[in-house]
Amino acid sequence: MPYQDPHLKQSLSGGIYNPGPSKQEVQAAQQRAFLRTPLRGNRHVAVVSMAGGVGKTITAGFLGQAWGEARGDRVCAIDANPDAGNLAERFAGQATVGADGRPVRALLTVRDLLTDDAIAPVDSVADLSNYMTIAGRLHILPAPTSVDDVLSAQEYRRAQAIADRFYNLTIIDTGTSIAHETHRAILELADDLVFVVGPSMDAARRVKAMMDDLQARGYGDLLARATVMVITRSSAESSLARSRRGGGVDPATLASYFARRVRDVVRVPYSRGLSDGMAADFAQLSEDIRAPYLQAAAGIAAHFNGPKTPAPILSRQRVPRVTSAQAVRGRRWPGLGARTKAGEPLPPATMKVTTSSGQDIQDLNQLDELDTLPRYGRREEYLNDRRD
C-alpha cells in the first residue's frame, strides 16, 4: 500500500479526519514539560571537568540558556572558575549594560558584588542585576578577571546565598582542580552534576578519577543522578583511525562506560564554530547542536523535585570479554545501552583497535581499566600484555 500522509488526509477531509499528534510531536511536548518542571526552593547545577578546553563553559552556558528559554522563573549562572573564567565574555561579550538595561562602568564581577554587599547589602533583584551580564534570558555573574583574585570557599557560599534570594535555578561553571577549596564548597551545595568529557583516553581517565574521588568522599547519590556530556572533538569528515592514533576514543564507547555510573549520557556533535571559541548563543545554534543540550536540560529538570537516586549497582561490574569472532558477528552485550533520545539506544559500544598483527577487535574489556592505559605507549602494547 502506498504511503499516505495523515495530515494530507486531514486537509482533504476538511478536518473530519484527525490523525492525532505524531511521535515527534509527543516527544517534543514531553521535553517542554520536563524543561518547565516547577521548582520547590532553589536548585544548583554544577558543570565540572578536570580537563580544560573540552567544552565545560559552553555546556554551562547552553544549559542555562535552554532553561532560560523554556522556564518562567529566574535562571542565573555563576562563573566560579578560579582561573579567570570567561563564561560572561563567551556568551555576552564585554557587556556595557547590566541585566536591567542600565549602563555599568565595566564588566562587573562576583568580586564587585561581594565587596559592595559587605558595605550595603544587596536586597533587591534590581540591585543584583547591576552585577549580572545578560545572555538571552540567562543572567551571568562573571568571575574575577585576575588569576590572582580567587574566591575562597566562604566567598562562594556568600555569592550563592545572595543569588538564591532572587534566582530559583543556578548553574555553576567550575574550575578543573577538585582539590581547590571552592570546588569542594560547590560540591557541598550542588543538587546536580554535569560532567563534560571529550573523546580522548586522557579526558576519560580524568573524569573517571573525579567520579572515583566523589564516590570515596560520600557523594555517591550526587554521582548517581549526574549527567555526562560527551563532546565529539573530531569533525565528521575526519577518520576515526586518525583520532585513535592521536589518543582519541570512539564516543559511543565512552558513553557506554559512563552510562553504568550516572543517570544520563548525552553525546554532542562537533561544531567548528564552537570549538574555535566564537561567541556563543543558544538561540542561533543549528538544530543538531541544540537538540542534545535540550535533551540534557530536560533530563535534569525532570528530576528537580524527585527522590534521591540510589547509587548504581553496576558501577564496579566487569564488562564481558569480547573475542574477535564475536566482534565479527557484531554481538551486543547487555547493560551497555546508554540512551541519547527517549527510547533510542546508542549504537553498540565498540572501539576497534588495530593490533600489531593488523587484526581489528572490539575492545570492551579495557573500559574498567581506563586509568591503566596511560602507562602504555600504545594500545597494541596494552592488548599484547593482556594476552600474555
TrEMBL record:
One of its GO terms (molecular function) is ATP binding. GO terms for cellular component: cytoplasmic side of plasma membrane; cytosol. Residues 1-21, 335-369 are annotated as: Disordered. Keywords: Cell projection, Cilium, Flagellum. Residues 45-170 form the CobQ/CobB/MinD/ParA nucleotide binding domain. Coiled coil: none annotated. Residues 352-365 have a biased composition (Polar residues). One of its GO terms (biological process) is negative regulation of cell division. This is MinD-like ATPase involved in chromosome partitioning or flagellar assembly.
